[in-house]
Design a protein that fits this description.
single chain, alpha+beta, minor pseudopilin epsh fold, 5-stranded antiparallel β-sheet, 9 strands, 19% strand
Length: 207
């Protein structure tokens, strides 16, 4: 008796393939932009920050320049007084535009912005005489900007005691910026005893 073994044929189910044809749309990444309102806000913020930066920079530069100029004169006055006490002789400081002669001797103004010179004034006449030129101790050149530094006197002399000679009363040296603004005004208040004090606008005749 013959047996026949029948093996069933199992067919693989065909899986439909997915192909992106030319007509099949693809998902694209979202593309976003800025609105006109957002751009206007950004530009406004940049403008505000730029204005603040310029103002801060101007404040820093003005402050540094003004402090340097007034402190230069203050330091040289204190130096002249100290040297007069140390050497026991008169030492003068005068406004000078060339570093070799006082403005008062050449018919110039009492503007100290042109510079000044410190020297051992052997005869105490507040004139930088020819025989005193070797005794020049310091020469400060004129200001490079438009700031002004004025006083009612063109020279100051300190005696061996450190007091001033020739002044009728306390003297104020006033530094102004251009354009003039009280916030940047600085002064040196010089007493008859030779003491020097820096002042802001509105104090001890600083205007």
């Amino acid at each position: 008796m013959a047996y026949h073994l029948t093996i069933p044929c199992i067919s693989r189910a065909s899986t439909p393939s997915i192909r992106h044809g030319a007509g099949t749309p693809r998902r694209r990444a979202d593309q976003r932009g800025y609105t006109l309102l957002q751009l206007m806000v950004a530009i406004s913020i940049v403008g505000i920050l730029s204005t603040m930066g310029v103002s801060s920079f101007r404040y820093v530069t003005n402050s540094a320049r003004v402090s340097g100029e007034i402190n230069d004169l203050l330091g040289d006055m204190q130096y002249a007084r100290a040297e007069a006490i140390k050497e026991g002789q008169t030492v003068s400081i005068c406004a000078s535009s060339n570093g070799t002669a006082c403005n008062s001797a050449t018919g110039g103004s009492t503007s100290w912005a042109t510079g000044w010179v410190v020297w051992s004034d052997l005869n105490g006449n507040q004139v930088l005489d020819a025989n005193e030129k070797p005794f020049i101790r310091h020469n400060r050149p004129s200001f490079t900007g438009t700031d002004t530094l004025t006083a009612p006197v063109a020279a100051v002399t300190f005696n061996r005691n450190g007091s001033t000679t020739g002044l009728v009363g306390p003297t104020t040296f006033t530094l102004h910026t251009t354009p003039t603004g009280t916030s940047w005004t600085r002064c040196i208040y010089l007493t008859l005893a030779g003491k020097t004090i820096t002042e802001l606008s509105g104090v001890n005749g600083c205007t």
